[in-house]
Write a structure and sequence with these properties.
Distance between the termini: 59 Å
Shape: globular
Number of helices: 4
Largest sheet: 6 strands, antiparallel
Order of helices and strands: HHEEEHEEEH
CATH class: Alpha Beta
Number of domains: 1
Length: 163
């Protein structure tokens, strides 16, 4: 606790910068409008989600966000769309990203959150990760999952649609 204010260090960030349901809903609404006007293209949609979330939360409180895609050998995850800059390199599958992918459940630890991106069969095919100067909570996980729900009705990126 901060003795002078009676607040913990986690509570000292500006509350106006805290992601809220209304801010997440605004991002989702803008994405839905974009997607109604065009044929679904998973690669473009991944970029649009990352861009939309970054535009809403980037810099305060988020410091980075992006997608991780499993490498064919399953030993690591390669970086996908990311903001404000690309991830520098692949990450091993034995860390947070691999655990979220294997468990198919979101996880957060302080200023880090990772959420599986599921296909139409409910199987993960990627992991979205965000880092922030403030802790994430269950509300953040639910809203981030909601952003990626559109992928549950289409083929995985790079996969041909069923005819």
């Amino acid at each position: 606790m901060n003795k002078s204010s009676g607040r913990s260090a986690e509570e000292t960030f500006d509350i106006k910068d805290r992601p809220s349901r209304a801010r997440y809903d605004k991002v989702k609404h803008v994405l839905d409008l974009k997607w109604r006007r065009r044929a679904p293209q998973p690669e473009r949609m991944m970029r649009e989600i990352v861009d939309g979330l970054w535009d809403a939360f980037g810099g305060s409180p988020w410091t980075w966000c992006g997608l991780w895609l499993p490498q064919p050998d399953g030993k690591a995850f390669q970086p996908g769309a990311a903001r404000p800059e690309p991830a520098p390199s692949a990450v091993p599958s034995d860390g947070l990203i691999g655990g979220v992918y294997a468990g198919n459940e979101p996880r957060s630890a302080g200023g880090d959150i990772a959420v599986p991106v599921q296909d139409r069969d409910g199987k993960p095919w990627a992991v979205f990760q965000a880092k922030a100067s403030a802790p994430f909570d269950e509300m953040d996980a639910r809203w981030i999952e909601r952003m990626f729900k559109a992928f549950q009705s289409m083929p995985r990126p790079g996969e041909r649609p069923m005819s």
